[in-house]
Amino acid sequence: MVGRIPLSAIREEFPILSVRVHGDGPIGTVESSTGKPLVYLDNAATTQKPRHVLEAVYRYYKKYNANVHRAIHALGEQATAQYESSRLEVRDFLRAVTEREIVFTRGTTEAINLVVFSWGRKNLREGDEILLTEMEHHSNLVPWQILAQEKGLELRFIPIREDGSLDTDALPRLIGERTKLLAVTQMSNVLGTINDVRSIVSLAHQRGVPVLVDAAQGVPHLPVDVRDLGCDFLAFSGHKIFAPMGIGVLYAREALLEEMPPFQGGGEMIRAVWYDRAIWNELPHKFEAGTPNVGGAVGLAAALRYLRGLGMENVRRYEDLLTRYTLRRLGELRQVVVYGNAARRGSLISFNLGDLHPHDVAQYLDAEGIAVRAGHHCAQPLHRKLGLSATVRASLSFYNSEEEVDRLVEALQGAEEFFSRGLH
Amino acid sequence: MDFTDLYQEIILDHYRRPRGAANLSHIPESKVHENPACGDSIKVEVTRGPEGVLKKVRFDAKGCAISIASASLMSGLLAGKSLTEVRRSARRFIEIMRGEGNPEFLDRWGELACLKGIIRYPVRVKCATLAWHALLDALPEEEDPQERTEA
């Protein structure tokens, strides 16, 4: 039960969860009656879409599709209305003050790049420092590296503790005179650690340092309230929160957005253009150059409405129970080593199975119909620090069940036996 | 397709008991070949014999069953062959794995035929070819192509 809704009803909302994989036919065949029932445990990479979202996107393209903000015709007005009402849905979901603070992007990566190359390029000088953490995804690291090289900035890192939690005790001495921004993930996509963003923001603000939150993994699993967190920027992706790929959000405090120059130039972001200059459009359109992903925004709004119906507290509670169950079941396997066991953790678990290579483990699981991720999960520096080249990651969502976790555990036992046959 | 078609017994055997595996810590890290998708890495060392013959191929690798098995099979297959032949074989193997050559050709290379199943798993092709790229890199500079056609 997620809140008051039985799991079976929830799973029915997600048609893809009932496909079978690797039946008769070419590699990767799905929907064959002969294959294995899919166990989808790669939710940190991308999530599946409920009917609400599929139907909203279908309806949009079937009945309303047109370009937004310019067309003087019925469809154009409808498309614009739907696009802008999607923005209101995001505003309410994040509890932002105004829709002027909600910028649609392609995803988290583009949202962070927007901050780096608009806010960062304007406000940072040689010798300035950006404070990151050792657990950042490449998308909250590499853009900063690019700007650091361009401007002569220094990147510093809040270390992680043995258990995978952030060493916030180090924070006061790491925030110095030259620290101009702190960028932190809300939830590690490798360790599962949920960071105490509220306290981090409060400490950073005491020193006058703004904070960017990479909420790509956080927003799909936790109730998020930007006013409560107090953050200055927050980025997330639609596709990780049950919406289509290619849509994402940057939340930023209005005062900051007002001062920031455009990120990209083009249509939509301007009010008036001459051959030699232009005047920028008002917020948030100043940051939305080019034709936006209207269908994506409509899908995102549908996903957020669906989640509000479920209740994010209910989602969090269910996923927390399922995560504990998974950790307990994995703990029964002598060969499994789990990376990250912070007290506050989300529903993704990275591990290794004895000396087996994560790719071999994932391939074995795949043959059993179980989808996990194997690799460095776009966090190479963190893996290097942990002395690992790769890990297997099982990431759960509220539509996963204990039975699916049991199948994972059973298949891991099978993999162990398969690869070690003849060795002992 | 069955999982055991991909992970055939020969592959598992080479993975568990790789031939040609060695500690090559004397080779600088800059010579390491990596698969960025999974962080696998390999160093390859070739020992030349008389008259342009490859005497020995050794490797030092961290990787999955397929990459280790491929390196092990490579090391066994190529020892004693001329450098020209080794280069040609390595390039052809990579082509075949990428789906650009006739996979039946692998049958002529004995045990190497066990890697045929991987062609159908595009994500894993890089695992199988990593060692061969490293080998091509470790070989001495190619002689003048002009010379080769005359010979």
Characterization of the model:
The complex is a heterodimer of chains A (424) and B (151). Chain A has 14 helices and 17 strands. Chain A is of the alpha/beta class and 424 residues long. In chain A, strand 5 (129-133), helix 5 and strand 6 form a beta-alpha-beta unit. The mean pLDDT of chain A is 95. Chain B has helices at residues 3-6, 9-16, 65-78, 83-97, 122-138, 145-150; strands spanning 33-35, 40-48, 54-62. Chain B is globular. Chain B has 6 helices and 3 strands; from the N terminus they run ααβββαααα. Chain B is α+β, with helices and mostly antiparallel strands. Classes of the chains: A alpha/beta (424), B alpha+beta (151).
Describe the SSE topology.
The complex is a heterodimer of chains A (424) and B (151).
Chain A: H1 7-12, E1 20-21, E2 36-37, E3 39-40, H2 51-64, H3 74-94, E4 102-105, H4 108-123, E5 129-133, H5 142-151, E6 154-158, H6 171-174, E7 179-185, H7 197-206, E8 211-214, H8 226-229, E9 233-237, E10 248-252, H9 254-259, E11 270-273, E12 278-280, H10 294-310, H11 312-331, E13 336-339, E14 348-353, H12 358-367, E15 370-371, E16 373-375, H13 380-385, E17 391-395, H14 402-420
Parallel strand pairs in A: 3-15, 5-6, 5-7, 7-8, 8-9
Antiparallel strand pairs in A: 1-2, 4-10, 9-10, 11-12, 13-14, 14-17, 16-17
Chain B: H1 3-6, H2 9-16, E1 33-35, E2 40-48, E3 54-62, H3 65-78, H4 83-97, H5 122-138, H6 145-150
Antiparallel strand pairs in B: 1-2, 2-3
SS-based structural class of chain A?
Answer: alpha/beta
Spatial gap, N to C terminus of chain A = 44 Å
Number of domains of chain A: 2
SS field, number of helical segments of chain A: 14
pLDDT average of chain B, as an integer? 88
Distance between the termini of chain B: 45 Å
The whole-number mean of residue pLDDT values of chain A reads: 95
Quaternary form: heterodimer
* Major sheet attributes of chain B: 3 strands, antiparallel
Low-confidence stretches of chain B: 146-151
